[in-house]
Write a structure and sequence with these properties.
The chain is mainly alpha-helical and 202 residues long. Helix content is 69%, strand content 0%.
């Protein structure tokens, strides 16, 4: 007998099903092309029905939008935490590189970056996903700007590059690194490329 007087629902609670579907979609989109994974594949892997998925997310566009939120929370946030550190600029820079070239197999995640992959093919997404891509990109640039401005105020940023330009430079270099990683270039080589690219700030 339920304490609340309500009839208990069968199976997992709805919130757990939503999380399970989102984590499944996240790994599918991240491992493969985010535009080439059909809803049916996600349903099969998540053990969900198409009608249930559409009731929860409204559309394929809604699912991709929600998946990007999960990616931002579970993956991108770690990079933002590094950028928000009070450590000296050079130490944060090295931590950022180390995080980027971490052993993905050991971490249990695919190579590359889902957000960069979706940005590269943004014209293929619906309005909800497009708006989320732009929002998360601006969010990422904001973290870079705050880090750079903090380094400038501490006299640790050895370059006269404007903050907005430097933030875009960091963003572009990280995107290139993620693309190389997805192509199978070794993390050791990618780390050296990033250190060379960022040497202008040291």
């Amino acid at each position: 007998m339920s304490v609340s007087g309500n009839t208990p629902s069968r199976g997992r609670p709805k919130t757990l099903e939503r999380e399970h579907v989102l984590k499944t979609a996240l790994m599918c989109y991240w491992a493969d092309s985010p535009t080439d994974v059909p809803i049916s594949e996600i349903c099969d892997k998540a053990g969900a029905s198409k009608p249930g998925l559409y009731r929860e997310f409204g559309s394929d566009d809604g699912l991709k939008e929600a998946t990007l939120d999960i990616y931002n929370e579970k993956v991108s946030q770690r990079r933002y935490d590094i950028l928000a550190s009070d450590q000296p600029f050079d130490e944060v820079l090295e931590a950022l590189i180390s995080h980027t070239v971490q052993d993905r197999k050991k971490a249990g995640v695919p190579n590359g970056c889902l957000l960069f992959a979706m940005r590269a093919r943004r014209e293929e997404f619906g309005p909800l996903t497009l708006a989320k891509i732009d929002q998360l990109r601006e969010n990422s640039l904001g973290h870079y700007r705050r880090w750079i401005d903090r380094a400038k105020s501490n006299k640790q940023f050895r370059c006269d590059m404007p903050t907005d330009v430097a933030a875009l430079y960091f963003d572009a270099q990280m995107g290139s690194a993620m693309r190389l990683q997805k192509e199978g270039i070794s993390n050791k080589v990618i780390a050296e490329i990033l250190r060379t690219a960022f040497s202008v700030f040291r």
